[in-house]
Specification:
With about 70 residues, the protein is of the alpha+beta class. It has two helices and four strands; from the N terminus they run H-E-E-E-E-H.
């Protein structure tokens, strides 16, 4: 066998061992870029400031960043 073929064969073996034992498989259906509704940023109806949905105030189906914006 030629030296180049032996090197390619060795490289393929090393890659196969790496992918079989060390590389973690990606979980299907979970994407890090997608935010869950609990982590969404919502614009305030009054001033337009984006706030975490957990920190917003809701009145009549509209989101506000603070009590002052909601009452104004």
């Amino acid at each position: 066998m030629s030296m180049l073929f032996k090197l390619l064969l060795l490289g393929g073996f090393i890659a196969a061992v790496y992918y079989a034992f060390f590389k973690k498989p990606a979980l299907s259906g979970s994407k890090k870029d997608e935010k869950s509704p609990e982590e969404a940023m919502i614009p305030c109806l009054k001033c337009g400031t984006y706030a975490d949905i957990k920190d917003t105030f809701v009145r009549d189906g509209h989101y506000y960043c603070s009590r002052e914006c909601m009452e104004a």
